[in-house]
Design brief:
The protein has 371 residues and is of the alpha/beta class. It has helices at 5-9, 17-25, 27-40, 44-47, 53-72, 76-91, 97-114, 118-133, 135-144, 158-169, 172-182, 186-209, 215-236, 258-269, 283-293, 308-320, 342-345, 355-368; strands at 245-250, 273-278, 297-301, 328-332, 350-351. It has a five-stranded parallel beta sheet, covered by helices on one side. Bound molecules: cobalamin.
């Protein structure tokens, strides 16, 4: 098993912040050059498995964001994991494995053409060279990685098996009935969210990653879960506030909202005064509502690694502003599931792998607060 290929070979502190900033400044130019090179390649269509050009361009964007994020927070491990995810996901969609080496060469070429400062260029070229040198290993590891650890890895239980088949069949009524039959108490609701809904959606994600369910089927599954949660909410939302104010939101550009909503519901069930903002709250709006309403804590959900950088910027701004710096920041979401230590790199106050643990941490903070 090849583990942490990059992390074991590189120390990101070797990359100067000037080189990292130069990469971020040049991203648009680099993206254009990389796309042009690949489109001009004689086997362009075959390399991308007949997918539309937009899919390839989107992949380049993802590559650039993950590279920039890894450089910014000094984490080669993050880069490695994202590269493995990309290889696995796009190989499943028909991209050829030599597409990725061709793309890496195109990035090298674009860097050589775009960077004025040869020292900065050389620092970045070395990373790309390393990715190229380990290309075959990375392909193999990504394909072997179907068993990558997921935070929600639980023994599939009967209820979950039934629930996921209802989601995949698009049976909203069946899913509502199942939830209604099973959930009698707040404890049942928590169990249902953690042991049925969460692993079912992780499974839907794995099927999407392997190109075995379509985007529409994934949307349908999410929409059914949203309807089930909305139907359950009024049954348990009658509460008395016994704890502080909490703002729960998905981070900027983050469209995944079910995890945040679970956290919001768990906190609310336990007496927190929750403001739930849903998906994709812009950074300045998060900062403004924190300053205006002065909650005790803010919980930010970040599901994809491509949104970590933006979330990190929000947290830095919260901590830098004296009007919000005392607000506790807890983070969570799928992007941390393989690298829980990322929360420290984002300068959050805590991370929790699930809504129950988030609640426990919030309550500990509340109980320990200076009165
Ligand atoms: C449904 C879904 C979508 C839907 C979301 C719709 C919605 N309204 O929420 C849509 C279609 C929008 C979507 C889009 C994309 N998605 Co998507 N998506 C999923 C999927 C299948 C399920 C998400 C979900 O609801 N999970 C269930 C909830 C309960 O899980 P959770 O969020 O992880 O929450 C738990 C914990 O993480 C924690 N938690 C969550 N938030 C918080 C917050 C705090 C503060 C705390 C303490 C804890 C905590 O508590 C929860 C359990 O109690 C996941 C698969 C997965 N593994 O989750 C992929 C997944 C997250 N998506 C993925 C990707 C790549 C994308 C796209 C980039 C796809 C693309 N276009 O190329 C876009 C990105 C859009 C964007 N800008 O955000 C990847 C991410 C991979 C990576 N390396 O980052 C995943 C993992 C799929 C996969 N296996 O490859 N997606």
């Amino acid at each position: 098993m090849i583990k942490n290929i990059l992390a074991s070979n590189y120390d990101l502190t070797n990359i100067s912040s000037a080189a990292a900033e130069a990469y971020m400044r040049s991203t648009d130019q680099l993206l254009t050059q990389v796309a042009n090179q690949l489109l001009a390649h004689p086997q362009s269509k075959a390399l991308i498995g007949g997918n539309p050009q937009e899919v390839m361009k989107d992949l380049h964007q993802k590559h650039a964001i993950s590279m920039a994020t890894a450089l910014k927070i000094n984490s080669y491990e993050l880069l490695e994991k994202t590269v493995l995810w990309m290889y696995r996901t796009y190989l499943a969609r028909g991209f050829r494995s030599d597409y990725f080496s061709t793309e890496l060469l195109a990035w090298q070429q674009a860097i050589k053409q775009s960077f004025d400062n040869p020292d900065h260029a050389n620092e970045l070229l070395a990373i790309y060279q390393w990715l190229l040198d380990h290309h075959q290993e990375m392909i193999e590891q990504s394909l072997a990685g179907a068993d990558l650890p997921f935070a929600a890895q639980r023994e599939a239980n009967k209820l979950q098996q039934v629930f996921i088949s209802l989601l995949l069949q698009g049976d909203t009524q069946g899913a509502l009935k199942l939830a209604d039959d099973f959930i009698k108490t707040a404890q049942d609701l928590k169990h249902f969210y953690l042991e049925v809904v969460w692993p079912s959606m992780v499974e839907v994600g794995k099927l999407w990653e392997a190109d075995k369910v379509s985007v529409a089927e994934e949307h349908l599954a999410t929409a059914i879960v949203g309807r089930v949660m909305a139907a359950l909410y009024p049954r348990f939302a009658h509460y008395t506030v016994t704890r502080g104010k909490a703002i729960v939101s998905a981070g900027p550009n983050e469209f995944h909202e079910i995890g945040a909503r679970m956290c919001a519901d768990f906190l609310e069930l336990d007496g927190w005064d929750v403001t739930y903002l849903g998906a994709n709250t812009p950074a300045d709006e998060i900062l403004a509502i924190l300053e205006r309403t002065q909650p005790f804590l803010v919980a930010l959900s970040i599901a994809t690694v491509f949104n970590l950088e933006k979330a990190g910027d929000v947290i830095r701004s919260i901590k830098a502003n004296p009007a919000t710096s005392a607000i506790k920041v807890i983070v969570g979401g799928h992007s941390f599931s393989e690298m829980p230590q990322l929360w420290q790199m984002l300068h959050a106050d805590a991370y929790a792998a699930d809504a129950e643990t988030a609640l426990r941490i919030a309550n500990d903070w509340w109980n320990a607060r200076a009165r």
